[in-house]
Amino acid sequence: xxxxxxxxxxxxxxxxxxxxxxxxxxxxxxxxxxxxxxxxxxxxxxxxxxxxxxxxxxxxxxxxxxxxxxxxxxxxxxxxxxxxxxxxxxxxxxxxxxxxxxxxxxxxxxxxxxxxxxxxxxxxxxxxxxxxxxxxxxxxxxxxxxxxxxxxxxxxxxxxxxxxxxxxxxxxxxxxxxxxxxxxxxxxxxxxxxxxxxxxxxxxxxxxxxxxxxxxxxxxxxxxxxxxxxxxxxxxxxxxxxxxxxxxxxxxxxxxxxxxxxxxxxxxxxxxxxxxxxxxxxxxxxxxxxxxxxxxxxxxxxxxxxxxxxxxxxxxxxxxxxxxxxxxxxxxxxxxxxxxxxxxxxxxxxxxxxxxxxxxxxxxxxxxxxxxxxxxxxxxxxxxxxxxx
Length: 389
Ligand SMILES: [Zn+2]
Ligand SMILES: [Zn+2]
Known about the structure:
Elements: E1 2-8, E2 11-16, E3 28-36, H1 39-45, E4 56-57, E5 61-69, E6 81-84, E7 87-88, H2 94-97, H3 112-118, E8 124-125, E9 142-145, H4 148-151, E10 152-154, H5 161-164, H6 170-180, E11 188-192, H7 196-207, E12 212-217, H8 220-230, E13 233-236, H9 242-249, E14 255-260, H10 270-281, H11 290-298, E15 299-307, H12 320-325, E16 329-332, H13 341-349, E17 359-364, H14 368-377, E18 384-388
Parallel strand pairs: 11-12, 11-14, 12-13, 14-15, 15-16, 17-18
Antiparallel strand pairs: 1-2, 1-4, 3-5, 3-9, 3-18, 5-6, 6-10, 7-8
Helix pairs in contact: 6-7, 7-8, 9-11
């Protein structure tokens, strides 16, 4: 089959790779009908996540059709049109029972690296290197889906592919930021990053009752999109002092909930940003926490900060003093999609939630290498590329 493979830092190619096989009784093989690029793929592309091997297939957000099932698959059959959660959960371990699916104890068949890195084994994730189990990614014609009864969800007839696609990763991630960030009716919510996840977090905040959402980015087209589709007020951080502006906009109190949807390759302005960029280039720090710092600084006393952007290592100048002195709740997590996907599909079916516009470009897989360059450089107004393999 055809697949988009990582060959080295900033080097991708469309190759012919072996077709996936059923390896365990609870596996299914899914023919991928649509798969999206994600900001976290860029950390892999750039080599900031140093556990990729040449030939690894990228991609973790996808929908498709089940074409083969293992003997113990109960809830799905061949022909089902499904959205598959990015993270793999066994559905039975203690973590899965607590609905902490991305922390599943059984999904990652290669726990050693993450045990050494973080003290505990990471969960399993499609297309995200050996650290998350070495599962093949979705930028391919077919994919093996382990524990398919727990990770795949039938797409309602009324939901088209372009919307359903983002129920795999983007929508549950954004939703979780707003929900676990503790958004309450009447809240003022600030969101850093207007990529698809940030836009979704803004929309979710409104659906959970926020009165105002203020979104922060530096790309005018992404800001305009967040204003248009999510109804957020927007700030361009290259044109304004964001903490000062937020202070002003909230009558001096600060935002109730701050959601960071940027991740480890954040940009910024000012001295701390230059310091971060230099340390990052010299590999003296693994992640740039520019937006995290600003979220902590801009949050009201007693408020809540939720980090959705992907971080893998250490950060510099983490303002622990501000977290402590302001009595903040600080949380972060990869998404527990299995918890949210059925609800999100229901909201899509009644037209309450639209996500199709995140895919600003829909292309064949053959154009993968160029598509990733466009996505990385955010050229041509690119928010996300979706492939139809
Ligand atoms: Zn993702
Ligand atoms: Zn589990």
